[in-house]
Structures are given as C-alpha cells and as structure tokens.
C-alpha cells in the first residue's frame, strides 16, 4: 500500500498501519492452508498464460485525475488504472505521454513486459502488485518517485536505481537482503514486509523516514543506529529478543512496533530510553507482555502494572499498544 510520503494517496500513518496489518493477518490466517495448497498446485502445473495485449482504447477509458501536464502546456488525465485485466503486454500505455501515475496491478506482467512504462517521460509512480515480476529493476526514470511491487516473486533489489526515488514498497516477495548497488539519498520510505530478510546491519539510508520490516527473520536491530532521521520503525513478527542498536542521535524516532517479537524483560525496554522523541511503542504479543511472540497468541488486555512500569521507564511515551496513557497512570508512576 502506498505510504504517507506521497501526496496523491494519503494512506497510512503508524496507527492506520496497525489496523490494516491486523486485517491482512486475519485474512491470511484463515486461508493459509488453502493458499499453501494452491501454491503447490501452481508449482506443479505451471499453466500457460494466454497473451493479452492492452490496447489504446482500453487505456483511454481508464484514465483519471485531471491535472496540469508536467511540461505546463495544458491539462490532461495524469493517471491510468489497468488492473485485473490478465495483461501480458502493456506497450500501448507508452503513447500516453502525459500520464504520471500508472497502476497495472493484478495482471500477468513480467519484469521485461513492465519496462515499457520507463518510456513514459514524466512517470512519477508505478504500482504493479500481484504480477509475475522476478526483479524490481526498471530502466532509470528521471522523475520516478514511487515503486510499489507487492506480492510478486522478486528476489533482489540490488539493481534498483532512480535519482528521485523516495518510496520503494516490495512486501510479500522473496528478498533476502536490503542491498542497492547505487546509493539513493532521496529514499524516505522502504517497505520490505514479509520477505526473507535476516540482517539489517549494513543499512545506509541517512534520510530514511519510515522502515517497514514486519514478518521477516530479523534477530537483531544492530545497524538501525545509522538511520538518524528515522521516524517510524515497524518490525512486528520478527524473532527479536534484544533491543540493541538504538542511540540518542535518533532524535526523530517516534514510533516502534515490536508486536509478536521475542522481547522478554524490562531491561530490553529500558534500552529505548535513549530515544528522545519516542511516543508510541507496540509490545503486544511479546513475552514481556504475557504473549508468546507468535501471531494469534496475544493477551487481549494489557496488564495495568506492566503499563505503569513501562511508563515509569519511558515517561515521554504517549501510548503503549493501543492504549493512550491516562493522567491517572502517569500519577501512579510516582508510587513505583
């Protein structure tokens, strides 16, 4: 989903992310068995996909968002939405020179077939969820700011480079490393949820604002200290026990989601005392809060004494899990 760093679709901030992810997890848990069966069947049968070309008239009727053209010559529709059409060939879209936002999700496009969008001179956003992409690579685009490629078969982002790229969203793929060949100092939001990432020790994104890594294999947050402009850290559902890696230079970090991680003691929670801007922390499902560190086994209600202990350790907090701290709770911290 498109993050809040791009104005065309002001979607989520931290709280909305939690709600959306809870809904996604519920749906996935209900259908996990059938989905696994489906995957096995697909791997065995590999059905042939019929060629399906997009034509110009189909693009014309799927345009929206009337606005001023990038070259300032007039007004045109700036967005094309060609989703769920079983497309394998979208070359027709390249003739719409004023398009800036392209959504071709839920089709049968390969990485090669998607390259045609790089011929659109003022392309700002490409949304290509649920296709057959094996790489996030696109030929360099001068104005491209947002890439969304969730639910594909992408295994690497090493060759991704665009001089203005600010948001890269590649959740539910097969990526093992957050590793780019070329530095992109413009990056503000990275979403690698539900991939195969285990190590974040070499992160180097000094201007990064938001990092979403839920559902990976991360055991340590060492390396996070290099992200001095980070504001949101979402690492839910990772086997993280120790909260090492934070430091006082991270003066903007306001929100940390550790739901269903393996944090067990107050000693670890106190390691967050160095963060001067921290306002919200999610620890629901962690052993420290009475959970097991596994999805679906969370304790519904927060222990009131634990809430007071956390607030006493981190007095600048405004919220723990979904509960905003009350004046009464703040007063109770003086009795500890």
Descriptive report:
With 336 residues, the protein is an alpha/beta fold. The protein has two domains: 51-196, Ribonuclease Inhibitor (Leucine-rich repeat, LRR (right-handed beta-alpha superhelix)); 224-335, Leucine-rich repeat, LRR (right-handed beta-alpha superhelix), CATH 3.80.10.10. 18% of the residues lie in helices and 13% in strands. It has six helices and 13 strands. Strands 1-2-3-4-5-6-7-8-9-10-11-12-13 form a 13-stranded mixed sheet, covered by helices on one side. Strand 3, helix 3 (111-114) and strand 4 (125-127) form a beta-alpha-beta unit. It starts with 13 loop residues before the first helix and ends with a helix. Mean pLDDT is 89; it is low at 4-12 and 29-44.
Summed up:
This protein has six helices and 13 strands. The chain is an alpha/beta fold and 336 residues long.
Strand line-up across the major sheet:
1-2-3-4-5-6-7-8-9-10-11-12-13
Q: What proportion of the residues is helical, as a percent range?
A: 10-25%
- In percent, how much strand structure appears in the residues? 5-15%
What's the CATH architecture name of the largest domain? Answer: Alpha-Beta Horseshoe
What number of structural domains do the residues give? 2
Q: Termini distance?
A: 43 Å
CATH topology of the largest domain: Leucine-rich repeat, LRR (right-handed beta-alpha superhelix)
Shape: elongated
Residue-averaged pLDDT, rounded?
A: 89
What is the rounded Rg?
Answer: 22 Å
What is the CATH domain class of the largest domain? Answer: Alpha Beta
Q: Catalogue the unreliable spans.
A: 4-12, 29-44
Question: Helix tally?
Answer: 6
Secondary-structure-based class equals alpha/beta
**What's the total count of β strands?**
13
Please describe the biggest sheet, giving its number of strands, its sense, and whether it closes into a barrel.
13 strands, mixed
Q: SSE order in H/E notation?
A: HHEEEHEEEEEEEHEHEEH
CATH superfamily of the largest domain, by name, is Ribonuclease Inhibitor
């Amino acid at each position: 989903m498109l993050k809040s760093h791009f104005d065309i679709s002001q979607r989520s901030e931290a709280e909305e992310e939690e709600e959306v992810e809870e809904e996604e997890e519920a749906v996935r848990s209900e259908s996990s068995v059938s989905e696994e069966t489906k995957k096995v069947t697909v791997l065995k049968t590999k059905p042939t996909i019929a060629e399906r070309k997009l034509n110009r008239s189909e693009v014309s009727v799927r345009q929206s968002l009337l606005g001023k053209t990038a070259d300032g010559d007039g007004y045109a529709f700036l967005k094309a939405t060609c989703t769920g059409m079983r497309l394998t060939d979208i070359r027709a879209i390249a003739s719409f020179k004023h398009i800036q936002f392209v959504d071709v999700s839920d089709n049968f496009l390969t990485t090669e077939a998607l390259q045609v969008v790089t011929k659109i001179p003022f392309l700002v956003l490409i949304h290509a969820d649920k296709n057959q992409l094996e790489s996030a690579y696109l030929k360099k685009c001068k104005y491209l700011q947002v890439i969304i490629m969730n639910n594909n078969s992408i295994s690497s982002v090493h060759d991704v480079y665009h001089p203005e790229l600010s948001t890269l969203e590649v959740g539910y793929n097969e990526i093992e490393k957050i590793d780019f060949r070329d530095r992109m100092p413009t990056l503000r939001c990275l979403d690698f949820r539900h991939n195969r990432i285990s190590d974040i020790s070499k992160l180097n994104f000094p201007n990064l604002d938001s990092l979403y890594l839920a559902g990976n294999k991360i055991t340590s947050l060492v390396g996070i200290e290099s992200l001095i402009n980070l504001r949101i850290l979402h690492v839910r559902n990772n086997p993280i026990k120790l909260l090492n890696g934070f430091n006082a230079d991270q003066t903007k970090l306001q929100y940390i989601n550790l739901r269903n991680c393996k944090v067990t003691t107050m000693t670890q929670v106190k390691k967050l005392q160095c963060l001067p801007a921290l306002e919200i922390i999610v620890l629901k499902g962690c052993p420290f809060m009475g959970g097991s560190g596994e999805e679906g086994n969370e304790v519904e209600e927060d222990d009131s004494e634990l809430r007071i202990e956390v607030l006493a350790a981190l007095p600048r907090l405004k919220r723990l899990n979904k509960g905003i701290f009350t004046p009464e709770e703040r007063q109770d911290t003086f009795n500890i």
